[in-house]
Design a protein that fits this description.
This protein is an alpha+beta fold. It has eleven helices and ten strands. It binds coenzyme a persulfide (COS).
Length: 385
């Protein structure tokens, strides 16, 4: 299928594919087994200059957009989403700075993120603020030239590995969602520590930890936007980054499908390859059709966002919902094609299957995506009257 990529975009795909084939695929089982962060692979991604794809040139990036970023994420995800999420979380961690930071803040933080010298992470989720993002309890109290932060963030991707953190905290409890504010924190600030590395079902190469704030003194100039804008910063951040999760879904589905087709051609039962059986062909046909549909919706959404429309929430949520439900279904069916062998750890199918589940959960469960889409459809209908 030709999606009319530009020459630069084809180059991004080639570079990312090479890293996937040469670095990610040969190392993914070991990284998964050892639950080891993919530091060396991220270095290769930095050497290929792919960290700055979505970052404007004036801040050290490539000057591209969501589409360019998603193309790279999709390729890495064909190999391993434990690796690709460690790459993609940088966009989630840094978009609040790009979207709401001052020129000074962008100049200070973005070039190191664009070069891959420093990783970024985003801190929104807490023990009691998951789907209910407005339920954040971490507080930020202004005292002189500093905000004093107290609280704990949970399940933060890249926590401990990243140097730059964008964090949502409450500055005015009485105002609900409008009482939240966004801040830039740096690893090493006094009172800012990390919890233990979480043990997970899948994406075991990625690092997930708590962010713990005990009287952390954050300079006033690290506030992003204005006080009270934190919830909007978080929502707009998710609107921009959810297509990246869709790209993980498309890549994972394609990776699992490719393995299943190859296996079906090689596996002989009843005196012929199982690929000759209609039942297998039909499973592959459904997997291929859904994956291509997910890709088409993702690319349309990414290009739509790059055209800078006013409201992107609905399309962003649709692409995340469809691609990640597809990834779960395709991983399930691909494992079924491998049957008993698929259940064994020496084949990659059980890892695709374990990894796929998180896609329906992080950056908003797929139930939350349906809430966002449904609410927007109703709003659009009401606006027509
Ligand atoms: N862009 C801009 N503004 C937005 C917005 C968006 N995408 N989404 C909501 N807002 C605004 C609303 O317009 C509303 O503004 P007013 O107060 O002026 O009316 C305000 O923000 C509150 O919105 P709403 O009432 O819809 O908030 P809810 O508390 O009901 O929450 C959901 C909305 C469920 C969509 C939100 O909490 C959410 O996305 N949850 C999932 C969080 C998530 O993805 N977590 C994953 C971990 S982060 S990696």
């Amino acid at each position: 299928m030709d999606y009319f990529l530009s020459d630069e975009q084809k180059m991004i795909v080639d570079l990312a594919r090479k890293i996937t084939q040469e670095q990610i695929v040969p190392n993914r089982a070991k990284l998964d087994e050892e639950e080891a962060f993919p530091t060396e692979i991220l270095k290769k991604i930095a050497e290929a200059d792919l960290f700055g794809l979505y970052i404007p040139e004036e801040y050290g990036g490539f000057g591209g957009g969501v589409m360019d970023f998603c193309l790279a994420v999709e390729e890495f995800s064909k190999g391993c989403i434990g690796v690709s999420v460690s790459f993609a979380a940088n966009a989630l961690g840094s978009y609040p700075i790009l979207g709401f930071g001052t020129d000074e803040q962008k100049k200070k933080y973005m070039p190191d993120i664009a070069s891959g010298k420093k990783l970024a992470a985003f801190g929104l989720t807490e023990a009691n603020a998951g789907s209910d993002a407005a339920g954040v309890q971490t507080t930020a109290v202004l005292k002189g030239d500093h905000y004093i932060l107290n609280g704990t963030k949970q399940w933060i991707t890249n926590a401990g590995e990243a140097d730059t953190y964008t964090v949502i905290a409450i500055t005015d409890k009485s105002k609900g969602a409008r009482g939240a504010s966004a801040f830039i924190l740096e690893k090493g600030m006094e009172g800012f520590t990390f919890g233990k590395k979480e043990k997970k079902l899948g994406i075991r190469a990625s690092a997930t930890r708590e962010l713990i704030f005990q009287d952390v003194k954050v300079p006033k100039e690290n506030l992003l936007g204005r006080e009270g804008m934190g919830f909007i910063v978080a929502m707009k951040n998710l609107d921009h980054s959810r297509p990246g999760i869709a790209a993980q879904g498309v890549g994972l589905a394609q990776g699992a499908l490719d393995e299943a087709v190859k296996y079906a051609r090689e596996r002989v039962q009843f005196g012929k390859p199982i690929s000759a059986l209609a039942v297998i062909q039909h499973m592959l046909a459904d997997m291929g059709t859904k994956t291509e549909a997910a890709r088409a919706l993702l690319y349309a959404t990414a290009r739509f966002i790059d055209s800078k429309p006013k409201d992107i929430s609905k399309m962003s949520a649709m692409s995340k919902l469809f691609a990640t439900d597809t990834a779960m279904e395709v991983a399930n069916d691909a494992l079924q094609v491998f049957a008993g062998y698929g259940y064994m750890r020496e084949y990659p199918m059980e890892k695709y299957f374990r990894d796929a589940k998180i896609l329906q959960i992080y950056e908003g469960t797929n139930q939350i995506q349906r809430n966002v889409i449904g609410a927007q459809l109703i709003k659009e209908s009401a606006a027509k009257k």
